[in-house]
């Protein structure tokens, strides 16, 4: 059974937490103690029904204010699929939290209030989803019960959103009219919108295709550890352990070690006590090579026929996550897979106003700002463009003074 990881994004009061609560409640995915707490809670909706947002609003401040502040993860499954939900904050103040929650998602649910339509926050969330390379997007036009389940309202909002999706570069967009409060089109299709001939949200989530890159084109194995027991029993043993981040490797594949450029051939793959012929993305394996070459933690094994970029000067999109502004005179650490090296921000190209999508120049990067920079690293990095291969195109910036993660990077190109 495969796992679908998805996020929910929307403005304050669009009903993200209620939608997830309804999804869990109507699919019978709530534990007995959670159900008891839900029914005994004194937090009710205006019509006297249970406030299902309680299921995801875990922080005291969230329950008091009725907003989402941090990323809340929920797990459930049906007969067809397992799910990991990241309920992400909608407010611009918590942009970094949304980026964190979305970084590993396969799909995004973007909520739009049927009474308000496409607003600034919708633009911001759609831009972030596109920036983070999420391939599948479901637009849930929520609170349809408050506009008398109007087909005209739905079509008008959908037209506006399709124009936005084209502008920010979203491709696979699927729209569903819903009422999270009443349960319309969440788990079961709604009789209140007989004009809608599509599927419910849960059915879509159960059947949407998850693309897994098993090609050799993006075969990447960051080396975590060099295993060299040096015992009498294993005198000649030399293995390179790591988790295949993308693509696949097979025995007899010709591989290149980056950044050194040495080449060799895979002679054996170990997975616990087995020796499979192929290692797929997500597998933690030990690889043996035909030649004894110099390889250490932080190096990258790739298919020799499909190599990534190798450079010390990289253009990247940056989401700044620290309360202290970016300092171009300071030396940071950059961590890319298992490799950590020093770097400096050579140039800030621009920031993006994520409410209007306009570029702003000569501006400081502060908390939650997003834009494009050029990085100069002390050691070469072997990377793919984030849009082509997220697993080998993402990195983080770490403040060398505090060891705090201060930025998320989406690597783009070798800088000119």
Could you characterize what this model shows?
The protein has helices at 16-26, 32-40, 60-65, 95-102, 120-131, 151-168, 201-207; strands at 3-9, 72-77, 82-87, 107-113, 136-142, 172-177, 220-222, 225-227, 239-243, 248-250, 254-258, 263-270, 278-280, 284-289, 300-303, 309-320, 331-336, 339-353, 358-360, 370-383, 394-399, 405-414. The chain is an alpha+beta fold and 416 residues long. The protein folds into 3 domains: 3-207, Rossmann fold (3-Layer(aba) Sandwich), CATH 3.40.50.300; 216-303, Beta Barrel (Elongation Factor Tu (Ef-tu), domain 3); 310-414, Translation factors (Elongation Factor Tu (Ef-tu), domain 3), CATH 2.40.30.10. The strands form 4 sheets. Strands 7-15-11-12-14-9-8 form a 7-stranded antiparallel β-sheet, with no helix packed on it. The protein has a 6-stranded mixed β-sheet with strand order 2-3-1-4-5-6, sandwiched between helices.
Any descriptors?
alpha+beta; Rossmann fold; Elongation Factor Tu (Ef-tu), domain 3; 416 residues; globular; 7 helices
Mean pLDDT across the residues is 88
What is the CATH topology classification name of the largest domain?
A: Rossmann fold
**The top level CATH class name of the largest domain:** Alpha Beta
Helix-strand pattern: EHHHEEHEHEHEHEEEEEEEEEEEEEEEE
In the residues, how many domains can be counted? 3
The CATH superfamily of the largest domain appears as P-loop containing nucleotide triphosphate hydrolases
The SS-based structural class is alpha+beta
Largest sheet entry: 7 strands, antiparallel
Q: Tell me the number of helical segments per DSSP (H or I, 4 or more residues long).
A: 7
The unreliable regions are: 59-69
How many β strands by DSSP? Answer: 22
- The shape, in one word, is globular
């Amino acid at each position: 059974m495969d796992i679908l990881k998805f996020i929910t994004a929307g403005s304050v009061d669009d009903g993200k937490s209620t939608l997830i609560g309804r999804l869990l409640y109507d699919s019978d995915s709530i534990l007995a103690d959670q159900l008891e707490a839900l029914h005994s809670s004194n937090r009710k909706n205006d019509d006297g029904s249970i406030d299902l947002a309680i299921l995801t609003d875990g922080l005291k401040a969230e329950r008091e204010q009725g907003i989402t502040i941090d990323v809340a993860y929920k797990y459930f499954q049906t007969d067809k699929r397992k799910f990991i939900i990241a309920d992400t904050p909608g407010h611009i103040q918590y942009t970094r939290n949304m980026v964190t929650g979305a970084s590993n998602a396969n799909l995004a649910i973007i909520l739009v209030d049927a009474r308000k339509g496409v607003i600034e926050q919708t633009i911001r969330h759609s831009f972030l989803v596109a920036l983070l390379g999420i391939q599948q997007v479901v637009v849930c036009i929520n609170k349809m019960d408050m506009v008398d389940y109007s087909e005209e309202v739905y079509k008008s909002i959908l037209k506006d959103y399709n124009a936005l999706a084209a502008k920010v570069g979203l491709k696979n967009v699927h729209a569903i009219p819903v009422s999270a409060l009443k349960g319309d089109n969440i788990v079961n299709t709604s009789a209140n919108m007989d004009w809608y001939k599509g599927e419910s949200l849960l059915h879509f989530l159960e059947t949407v295709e998850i693309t897994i890159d098993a090609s050799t084109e993006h075969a990447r194995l960051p080396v975590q550890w060099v295993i060299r027991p040096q015992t009498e029993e294993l005198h000649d043993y030399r293995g390179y352990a790591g988790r295949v981040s993308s693509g696949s490797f097979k025995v007899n594949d010709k591989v290149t070690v980056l950044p050194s450029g040495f080449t060799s051939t895979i002679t054996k793959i170990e997975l616990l006590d087995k020796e499979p012929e192929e290692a797929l993305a997500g597998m933690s394996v030990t690889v043996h090579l035909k030649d004894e070459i110099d390889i250490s933690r932080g190096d990258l094994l790739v298919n020799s026929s499909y190599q990534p970029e190798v450079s010390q000067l990289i253009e990247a999109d940056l989401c700044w996550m620290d309360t202290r502004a970016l300092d171009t005179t300071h030396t940071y650490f950059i961590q890319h897979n298992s490799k950590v090296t020093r770097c400096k921000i050579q140039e800030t190209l621009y920031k993006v106003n994520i409410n209007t999508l306009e570029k702003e120049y000569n501006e400081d990067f502060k908390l939650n700002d997003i834009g494009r920079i050029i990085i100069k690293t002390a050691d070469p990095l072997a990377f793919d463009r984030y849009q082509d291969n997220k697993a080998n195109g993402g990195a983080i910036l770490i403040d060398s003074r505090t060891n705090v993660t201060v930025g998320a990077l989406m690597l783009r190109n070798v800088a000119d």
